[in-house]
Amino acid sequence: MRDFRDLTKIKTLGELKRSGYRTRSVKDEMRENLIAKTKAGENPFPGIIGYERTVLPQLQNAILSKHDIILLGLRGQAKTKMIRLMVNLLDEYIPIVKGSEINDDPFKPLSKYARERILHEGDDTEIAWIHRSERYAEKLATPDVTIADLIGDIDPIKAASQKLTYADENVIHFGLIPRSNRGIFAINELPDLQPRIQVGLLNIMQEKDIQIRGFQVRIPLDIFIIYSANPEDYTNRGNIITPLKDRIDSQIITHYPKTIEIGIKITEQEAWINRNSEVKVTVPYYFKEIIEHIAFEARRSEYVDQKSGVSARLTISAMENLVSSAERRAIINDESDVLVRISDLFMVVPAITGKIELVYEGEQEGVINVAKLLIGKAINQVFKKYCPDPNKKVQGQSPYAAITNWFSQGNQVDIYDDMKFEDYFKALDRVKGLREIAEKTMQPKNKAELATAMEFILEGLHQNSMVGKDELDSVRTYNDMIGKIMSSVGSSKYER
Q1: Which band of pLDDT confidence, cut at 50, 70 and 90, is reported for residue 487?
Q2: What percent of the chain has pLDDT over 70?
Q3: What is the pairing mode between strands 223-229 and 69-72?
């Protein structure tokens, strides 16, 4: 990799020639810098988790092959993040003819402006150095994107103000793609681009040149193009025309986290958890598992449209809402150190409802009910990991017999969203046998962890139909499951 500390002091074309500097194509730059980073043991895609043995090797192979690329995958699979990290594979600075709109190489000028300037000024032509961050352009494909936006058009105002004829190249207004010359250009959601606009990309992909409004001049661009697309878009909103797909050298399929542990790492990296706040919020590891299980449950739920996908943004937003719920309770109760509770988990519903697309059955059930169902299933998955199986008896008796017997005697526990800790702990500690199970299975280190573990076990028993639960606004009441069922069965049509 080049050292640009001295090179960037060069100000003219003559000085650049004498320095021995040689330009490389964009794809050569990326290839050689990737090789250098790999040899140095440096991660070329920092912050990308879960793709180390799947997507990233394919991506690196495509770069080594000097391919244009499309990343194909459902929403929330870090496609845009990977695309933007490609900039790190460019040289830190490159020289251009000063004032050039299309980053003209001083040794191989393309635009009329750069050619004429070098013709008249020779080695005294001024050059400028642009940073790698200025060599990246991105466009979200929408139906209203035009050829003028991407390629360029004739600028009548420029023609009038400079008294130029329409035959003069200087009347051209360059679009995003030629302005990205000697850099990276990305198009997100490619299928949303109208087919007639996609046709305009064919020459760029194969012949690497553009034509603007019938000008005979061809401008051979040095550019790396990368696209992203959602496979559902092929039939839902649009499609990628076959000739364009054929010209994209490598198609790389992305995916969601394959394990809960990978999902947790992604959420910890992306979610705003460590806040500059007077309140310290602690999130036990098993809560992080529950948050990830919500997404995993959604990705296999019969109520959720699997073709649409369930974005990783769901777990990120859910974790942030979980922390905020505990933070809000601490502010209300003037507490400085809090632990999240199971009751906080049901405050993440807004993070779920906007990020899942429901099939007909899900619409009938209602998005809020589906969200709560997913949370309940996630809790149950983690409950089964840490706690004894409610269906297995020890010496002929359920390990939770003391708890269910306590509820069967007509007792109940009321949990409020903004409950003070001491009231919260006392309410849960009334349940006979609950503390012992929590201490044995969850091994809490302090009173706060014990209280949260006790509520976790109650909710787990509810998810396994061993403890009943009623919800009314911000109050959740745990009670006797059998008594509740019998009461429901015993109520006659006349009583209703």
Answers
A1: low
A2: 93
A3: parallel
| 275 touches 327 (CB < 8 A) | yes
Predicted model pTM: 0.88
d(CA 60, CA 44): 9
Higher pLDDT, 474 or 120: 120
Please, what is the angle between helix 401-408 and helix 434-442, to 10°? Answer: 150
H/E segment holding residue 136: strand 136-140
- Residues near 231 by Cβ (< 8 Å), separated by ≥ 6? 72, 73, 74
Instruction: List pLDDT tens digits, range 142-177.
Output: 888 998 899 888 777 777 777 776 667 777 788 899
Give how far Cα 317 sits from Cα of 156, 191, 392, 398, Å.
Answer: 48, 27, 36, 38
- Residue 462 phi/psi, 5° resolution? -65, -40
| Tokens linked to 286 | 């098993």
**pLDDT mean over 184-208:** 90
Backbone angles phi, psi at 379, to 5 degrees: -60, -40
The residue ranges of DSSP E strands in 441-490, in sequence order, are 467-472, 475-480
Q: Are 298 and 304 in contact (CB under 8 A)?
A: yes
Q: Is the predicted pLDDT of residue 178 greater than 50, yes or no?
A: yes
Q: Averaged over 435-458, what is the pLDDT?
A: 96
User: Rounded to an integer, what is the distance from CA 246 to the centroid of its chain?
Assistant: 28
Burial class (CB in 10 A: 0-12, 13-18, 19+), 402: middle
3-class SS string, 39-78: HCCCCCCCCCCCCCCCHHHHHHHHHHCCCCEEEECCCCCC
